[in-house]
């Protein structure tokens, strides 16, 4: 039964992690009683490995889940992974490139089967990490967004939305990544402020000696210009009605149009119109019926439409075009210009706006329903300041481009008739075209955006579209916990899809937490190299300590800063819990008691009445804080209770009561009762150490299934009495410290009870204070010497005479030291250079310190006088 001296989480954490999975105790039964608590993990990418953001997510999720389970709720924590379209395809393409093969060489079917092979081999890294960090999931319900079951849900969702008119095919400007060779949604594009140039180019007006000057940051697109525009209100250009200009380099006449798109205040007030390469120009082009000339292709090379520049890379073409304009004296000037460059979020390639035919979800009507659900409280954001951000985005939502030109993903269930060109969307491949009966049908080559399947996650994982027992029991899910960075990618889309397809919200509460930042509060990123690996942290400090640190730092609406001191403190806390358990177990052994955690006995002794009162209060506020997702408060409360009530006072008092060979006395029952309750309170936060200690104290079943302590009776009288006792002990200790005496030194003293009515537990007081007291009910005539007074007591210590000499020496020595410090401060405060250079708060704190030194010198002087 010996507990190892050192707390070494590495020795038992992996064991419990495996045991939890193998024992199947987290299996959810939809028929079981209890109110339902269900939650689906935000599915990590199958390519991924656990990062610190996941660790935060999973800590909060698992804490909430374990708490609900222990409260007796019918709890489901559903795990799974996302097939992560672009990310996974890129990874496999890269490994193929190492073999010198491209996916095109392999062909679609072979490539996809290679990705599956990759997934089988490496795709479970993230789930084994989830198991290792103690996620209390029902692994029998593990899901994968590209599994046959979930693919069926995706197919059904697509067809239903199409039938209801929410999915359409359209020709629009999309963000195109030439490297990934696919369209990207707005959210998959990141914007980066860059120093670029604004090129001012002269367009000669036909039949005139005049030029119009247009400015552009992308001169290569000029080859596709089909007009120049001026504002109808701009008086400078009224005479140009019906005129044309010659497009330089292409020698093509293009019209001057009058359109609001031109801002008279900006530059010359003339803008070039390139409908095929700019979303605003595309709109203007539609208004004026302009042709769309595509001069940059999907491969980022200039097309045949680019004339002499055809075949060049877009940036090479830019250089040549600028040089040629210069030669022709058509370049007015070049001006440095700050612009927001759009890059592919996956690969960093500069995105090209291109016109292409894609599939879209018409989001506005879906967004209306989603906003209504948040408005009427069917979905609650925590903290609720996210409502504003959510509404802002939803009100301005653009249609969602859902087709991707990839091979790894859900293939779009649409068939193109090569005969009549009609498109058929269906649940199963049609035999022939319903329009012309031709059998020449080809399935759309595109796959769906990976977020399309994730947006169905809360219900597809429960068996939708089938009406399953799981769906009926666990949908809507109770809670979604995630970082704010995927509010739009994911939370908003799940809400829209859930409401449209199931008629109900996908979850009732959304808890948004902040980011984990580096010690300088910078965002962590691989490129910056400031990423901390949670697995390293877990190795070094233990998973429990990592969880405790994250929760203590996770106040709602704030980001968390990585801080090794805090992690160390969390580890020390776990260490203290370990040491307390060890002390208790050792004492049990000498009392002849087998390890056990019995129910508490009778609460008669002051410390027992007091500790259970405190325990009940703590349980009450911890349950309330958990209900409100105030996890930092939970961690803080439990820390305070254990460190300051249980260890500092209760255990100390019990050392007086517990006798060797006593057997399981009432004192033991209470001590073990409160300790067992504390382990259960801490279990959701510190699952590993509590499970380990639970078993070390003779329990056979998992603590994860034990009852979570709730609020109970509070004993105000015991709390008052205990706080008086604490006050007296503290006073005695302070007196000893003031006189340079050791805490443990046994002294004699007198306790004057001013009104005689209050009871003091004298043996406890004497034990803790290490002072033998004489109790007096008379009032002291004069109080001199080592005295502390409370409203009800005067406490007098008899200081050892023999020590007087030594004490005088000590005081004199300390005063010398302090004098030196004062002299040092005086020197600094007289130094002009320091006074001018140092920040005000530094100078101020030096002044304060100096005053403190002087006050202490005064005190010492008085004490010395008294001793003499
Ligand atoms: Zn890309
Ligand atoms: Zn047809």
Computed Rg? 37 Å
Overall 3D geometry? Answer: elongated
Based on secondary structure, the structural category is alpha/beta
> What is the count of DSSP helices, taking H or I runs of 4+ residues?
27
End-to-end distance: 56 Å
Strand content: 15-25%
Bound molecules: zinc ion
**Largest sheet composition:** 4 strands, antiparallel
- Tally of strands: 29
Strand order of the largest sheet: 6-5-14-16
What does the average pLDDT come to? 90
What helical percentage do the residues reach? 40-55%
Low-pLDDT residue intervals, each spanning 5 or more residues: none
Description:
This protein has 868 residues and is of the alpha/beta class. The chain is built from 27 helices and 29 strands. The protein has a 4-stranded antiparallel sheet with strand order 6-5-14-16. It has a 4-stranded mixed sheet with strand order 10-11-9-12, covered by helices on one side. The longest helix has 28 residues, at 803-830. The protein starts with 8 loop residues before the first helix and ends with a helix. Bound molecules: zinc ion (2 copies). One zinc ion is lined by residues 417, 419-420, 422, 433, 435-436, 438.
């Amino acid at each position: 039964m010996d507990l190892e001296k050192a707390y070494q989480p590495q020795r038992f954490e992996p064991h419990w992690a495996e045991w939890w999975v193998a024992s199947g105790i987290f299996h959810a039964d939809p028929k079981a009683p209890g109110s339902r608590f269900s939650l689906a993990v935000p599915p990590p990418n199958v390519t991924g490995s656990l990062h610190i953001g996941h660790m935060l997510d999973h800590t909060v999720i698992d804490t909430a889940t374990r708490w609900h389970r222990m409260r007796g709720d019918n709890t489901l924590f559903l795990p799974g992974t996302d097939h992560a379209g672009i990310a996974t395809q890129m990874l496999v393409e890269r490994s193929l490139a190492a073999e010198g093969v491209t996916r095109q060489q392999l062909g679609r079917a072979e490539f996809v089967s290679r990705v599956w092979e990759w997934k089988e081999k490496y795709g479970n890294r993230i789930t084994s990490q989830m198991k290792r960090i103690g996620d209390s999931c029902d692994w029998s319900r593990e899901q994968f967004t590209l599994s046959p079951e979930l693919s069926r849900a995706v197919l059904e969702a697509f067809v239903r939305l199409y039938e209801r008119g929410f999915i359409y095919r359209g020709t629009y400007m999309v963000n195109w990544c030439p490297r990934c060779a696919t369209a990207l949604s707005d959210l998959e594009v990141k914007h980066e402020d860059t120093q670029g140039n604004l090129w001012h180019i002269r367009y000669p007006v036909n039949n005139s000696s005049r030029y119009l000057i247009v400015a552009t940051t992308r001169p290569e697109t000029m080859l596709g210009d089909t007009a120049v525009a001026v504002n109808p209100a701009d008086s400078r250009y009224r005479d140009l009605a019906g005129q044309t200009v010659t497009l330089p380099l292409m020698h093509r006449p293009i019209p001057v149009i009058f359109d609001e798109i031109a801002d008279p205040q900006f530059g010359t007030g003339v803008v070039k119109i390139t409908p095929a390469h700019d979303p605003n120009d595309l709109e203007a082009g539609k208004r004026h019926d302009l042709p769309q000339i595509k001069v940059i292709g999907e491969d980022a090379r200039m097309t045949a439409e680019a004339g002499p520049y055809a075949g060049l890379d877009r940036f090479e073409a830019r250089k040549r075009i600028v040089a040629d304009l210069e030669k022709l004296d058509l370049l007015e000037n070049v001006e440095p210009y700050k612009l927001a460059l759009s890059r592919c979020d996956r690969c960093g390639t500069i995105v090209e706006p291109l016109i292409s035919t894609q599939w879209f979800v018409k989001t506005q009507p879906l967004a209306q329903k989603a906003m209504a659900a948040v408005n009427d409280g069917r979905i609650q954001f925590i903290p609720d300041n996210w409502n504003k951000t959510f509404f802002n985005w939803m009100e301005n939502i653009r249609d969602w481009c859902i087709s991707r030109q990839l091979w790894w993903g859900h293939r779009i269930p649409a068939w193109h008739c090569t005969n009549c060109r009609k498109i058929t969307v269906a649940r199963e491949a049609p035999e022939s075209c319903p329009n012309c009966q031709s059998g020449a049908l080809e399935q759309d080559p595109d796959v769906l955006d990976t977020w399309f399947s994730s947006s169905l996650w809360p219900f597809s994982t429960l068996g939708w579209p089938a009406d399953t027992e799981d769906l009926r029991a666990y949908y809507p899910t109770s809670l979604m916990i995630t970082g704010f960075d995927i509010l739009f990618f994911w939370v908003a889309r799940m809400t829209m899809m859930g409401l449209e397809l199931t008629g109900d919200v996908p979850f009732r509460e959304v808890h948004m937490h902040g980011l984990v930042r580096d010690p300088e509060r910078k965002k962590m990123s691989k490129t910056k190299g400031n990423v901390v690996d949670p697995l390293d942290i877990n190795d070094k400090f233990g998973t429990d300590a990592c969880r405790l640190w994250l929760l203590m730092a996770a106040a709602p609406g704030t980001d968390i800063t990585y801080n090794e001191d805090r992690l160390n403190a969390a580890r020390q806390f776990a260490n203290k819990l370990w040491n307390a358990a060890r002390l208790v177990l050792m004492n049990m052994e000498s009392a002849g008691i087998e390890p056990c955690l019995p129910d508490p006995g009778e609460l008669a002794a002051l410390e027992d009445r007091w500790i259970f009162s405190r325990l009940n209060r703590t349980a009450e506020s911890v349950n309330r804080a958990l209900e409100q997702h105030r996890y930092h408060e939970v961690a803080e409360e439990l820390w305070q209770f254990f460190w300051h009530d249980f260890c500092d006072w209760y255990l100390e008092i019990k050392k007086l009561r517990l006798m060797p060979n006593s057997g399981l006395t009432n004192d033991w029952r209470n001590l073990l009762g409160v300790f067992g309750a504390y382990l259960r309170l801490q279990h959701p936060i510190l699952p590993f150490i509590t499970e380990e200690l639970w078993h070390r104290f003779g329990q056979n079943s998992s603590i994860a299934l034990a009852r979570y302590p709730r609020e109970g009776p509070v004993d105000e009288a015991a709390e008052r009495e205990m706080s008086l006792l604490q006050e007296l002990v503290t006073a005695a200790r302070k007196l000893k410290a003031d006189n340079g005496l050791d805490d443990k030194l046994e002294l004699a003293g007198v306790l004057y009870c001013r009104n005689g009515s209050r009871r003091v537990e004298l043996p406890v007081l004497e034990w803790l204070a290490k002072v033998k007291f004489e109790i007096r009910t008379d009032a002291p005539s004069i109080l001199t010497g080592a005295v502390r007074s409370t409203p009800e007591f005067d406490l007098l210590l008899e200081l050892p005479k023999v020590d007087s000499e030594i004490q005088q020496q000590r005081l004199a020595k300390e005063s010398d030291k302090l004098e030196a410090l004062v002299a040092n401060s005086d020197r600094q405060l007289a130094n002009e250079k320091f006074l001018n250079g140092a920040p005000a708060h530094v100078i101020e704190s030096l002044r304060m310190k100096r005053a403190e030194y002087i006050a202490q010198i005064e005190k010492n002087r008085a004490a010395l006088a008294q001793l003499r």
